UniProtKB/TrEMBL annotation, chain A:
It comes from the Bacteria. GO terms for cellular component: plasma membrane. It comes from Phytoactinopolyspora halotolerans. InterPro entries: BPD_transp_1_N, MetI-like, MetI-like_sf. The chain crosses the membrane at residues 12-30, 101-122, 134-158, 178-201, 236-262, 282-308. Residues 95-301 form the ABC transmembrane type-1 domain. Pfam families: BPD_transp_1 (PF00528), BPD_transp_1_N (PF19300). This is ABC transporter permease. The keyword Lipid metabolism does not apply. Its main location: membrane.
UniProtKB/TrEMBL annotation, chain B:
This is ABC transporter ATP-binding protein. Residues 388-408 have a biased composition (Basic and acidic residues). Its main location: membrane. GO terms for molecular function: ATP binding; ATP hydrolysis activity. SMART domains: AAA. InterPro entries: AAA+_ATPase, ABC_Ni/Peptide_Import, ABC_transporter-like_ATP-bd, ABC_transporter-like_CS, Oligopep_ABC_C, P-loop_NTPase. Belongs to the ABC transporter superfamily.
Amino acid sequence: MYAYLVRRMLQFGVVLVLGSIAVWAFVYALPGDPATVLAGPDASDAELAATRDRLGLDRSVVEQYLSWLGSALTGDLGTSYYAARTVTETLADHIPATVQLAVAAMGIALLIAVPVGTVVALKPHSIAARALQGYLTAGLAIPAFWLGLLLIIAFAVQLNALPAASDYVPFWEDPGQALRHTILPALGIAVHASTVIARFLSTSLSEVRGRDYIRTARAKGVPERDVVRHHAMRNAALPTITIVGIQLGAFLGGTVVIEAVFNYPGLGRLLYTSIGERDYAVVQGGVLFVVATFLCLNLLVDVVYAYLDPRIRLA
Amino acid sequence: MSAAHTRESDRRTASEPGAGRAEAVLSIRDLVVEFTTPAGTVRAVDSVGYNVGRAETLGVVGETGSGKSVTVLSALGLLRAPNLRKVTGQVLLDGESLLDLPDRELRRRLGRDVAMIFQDPISALNPVQRVGHQIAEGIRVHDPGVSAKAARARVVELLGKVGVPHPEARFDQYPHQFSGGMCQRAVIAMAIANRPKVLIADEPTTALDVSVQAQILELLRVAADETGAATVLITHDLGVVAETADRVCVMYAGRVVETAGVEQIFAQPRHPYTASLLNSLPRLDMPAGRLTPIPGQPPDLVDAAPGCAFAPRCPIGRDRAVCHERRPELLPADLAGPDGQASPGSGPASFSACHFPAEAAGLVGAGDSGSPGRPAVTDGASSATADDASHETTDDAPHEATEDASDRPVLRITEVVKRFPVRSGVFARPSAWVHAVDGVSLRIRPGQTLGLVGESGCGKSTLARLLLRLHEASSGEIVVDGDDVGRAGKAELRRIRRRVQMVFQDPYASLNPRLTVGDNVAEPLRLDGGFSRAARRRRVLELFGRVGLRPEHADRFPSEFSGGQRQRVAIARALALEPRLLILDEPVSALDVSVQAQVLNLLDDLQRESGMAYLFVSHDLSVVRQVADEVAVMYLGTVVESGPVERVYADPRHPYTRALLASVPVPDPAGRDRRRRTPLGGDVPSPSDPPSGCRFRTRCPLAEQRCADEEPPLRPTAGGRTACHFAEDTHHLRQPAVRP
């Protein structure tokens, strides 16, 4: 198993390097001098010179990349010219908000997906399952921004119960306020994810229920509830975990649209505004963070997989 | 259920064997199981009834789709198909009606009073749970008072009892760390954990190798003896039944067609289906003659015709009106016995669902009257004249053990080696090599069949694939018809492959489902390029005629065909370019016995017409003996014994060959107690780390120090070749029950 994990980590490293090259190269691919791109449209000559100097544009491409990577690894991702702060600081302001939103959204998605997927798989012909099938189809089809708008109209405008524009309130400072501000955007993105996860879960659960070892468990006299809990669920969870990891990665990568709709100060909105303002240093840093997060989650999924499946763990 | 119906079923079951006897522990009465399919309602089980008494073993035999498994699964409420339409009838476990119990109450009896053992032991265990915990769960679910510690101790004891070595360590392992045989032992431990009253084994050895099968059957017998359980053994293998059952119940098309004591069934079957099944079986204890297959296929169970389901295939029916009009009931058939010595009360009774049970008994040993000249498989007790006749037919092919230089072989392989890397570690470097094929030399002459036998993992299929370079050989020389396969360039390889065709095991997977069977057969012709569309069509129809398919079937799709017909299509495709050599990789192991005989006979006819050579790869020793002229026995990548088929089967010199032959269940219950089996112990060692010297030494009763030090060469012995240091001294080892 350790060889497996070490191998995954090495792959992780390789992909991260390739990703970082892509992120680094993109400012060079934009029209104009990378220094003008990074320093921003209104930069003074002195600022431009400083940026040029920092980028070392007179050195070889490899050297430029390595020096950029070196500073990135030590936390120096350049300076946001609008905010006049370092990119690292800017990201640090927005990442916790996105993490909180992502965790809340995944929590809601799982709270919906696990029971829905289970009912659809176990009682496919029941009225409940038919109704839930409708939810699965609708939830998949409704765009998040539209759902977000509907939620704002319902809860903020009509009921006036929740804020229309969400602020980031750290959960540990004020859980009540945090929930009030997070729940609508979280729900906005959770619905779609919940349908994807529920579909995966119900497909693999109904497949697993037809396996021989489920019949063995029944023949042993295990009550049906325990057959599902002890034998079916764990096996069905395996393929589902992959999709949960991918969805969570997408959440953490910034849910640009929903954050824009709710004006939520997360990574997504930061990237969105930064692109609009051509604040490419921030975009570069943000994308690098997203790539790294995604890869970390993949690695985490592999670890969980190995933990749950002895065929991988003991291979 | 109507009152009239109830009365009728009562009358019938009252007359059935075991009914009324106090010791009937499991009694199935009038069970009907129906499924809804797009084609209509399928009655998979039709008024099936049988009883099993305490300490009795009932063998339930039947081919695919006969309803033998569906009967028990539905009886225990384990059938979960969404299209299950209804289950009616009665299932009495110790007098208690199981079908009337609510699910929770039923579960309380499952695993405690009645336990099941399934076909594929590896998939019968949960892959993510420790084996020990899975067994313990079966104990604790019925007795929550048992502590985890006590359950563990009990499971370890059970594992030891069923012959799992190092039970303490094995408890904590997962199913993928167990071999197939070990998994089945674990499943048996699970089944006997609560000392059930009834043990139901559904094809318990079908997925296992023959040497492991012998171990498991022995274990089942011991388990049944020790628990005193009534055993239902469901199988398609008449040999397994003959070795283990006290009474036999033969099923066909969802009905019981015959039940009788095991000796009676094999010596004097009272139903033509039973007799035909026995006649279509290649067997080691009989002279190898031409088989008598059952013509046609099992019927479609959708809207079954009113008459006897077997009538269209019946050798004695002669289109009599009664067979097509009235469904025969299962009635006592003892009185109709030719010996006139019906003895109700003493010994198990015989029941047959045939209008003419007396005629059926005459079928055994008499051959199929519809095909004159075919020597029949004979009853062990009958005269020897038929044996002699059939002996001659197998002997008319010349067999020289010596190599004849003038007769250029179609295939010559010399010291062929194939190693697969086992990759591990961070960089997936090959850390070990699986020696799948390790220095094999063989040759096949035109018109001859070489049978390649061995257990799973011995390398026989890998070897077959090397011949077409579907895998690249690691070293050695493969020469087909004078051309070196290993050195051939792309174009030459194509030419070689045209002359060597392959038929695979699974006829369901080996045909393209999106092409009509005609197009499937035409594909080699299309690839060859030399045929116009019309010429291809002509050739396809001609090939269809040769393999016994109707020309109008050419435009249908593979899904419309049964397994046996699909295998005919696959054979037709292989024949399309008139190959010189046909590689048959387990061509009949996915087929039922009656259909298997049809395909074996077809192969025999084709070879006689065309002079093709066959490489026939199989795990089934009886089938190989039926078709082969020469045999090579493989063990862990090497040939341990080879030679003419009579020599290898009648005078096996290698301890492995002897053990294999002795492990094959003999479809003749007479004298089974004298055939004391001490089956081959243990499992095949890992081919990535084969034992030093002789690879068989770890399981060999003769092994000495010399066997570990020196690898025995394949040397000429008694007209064949044997790779054993003690080939001259193996006579005292158990004598296989092969009759030359």
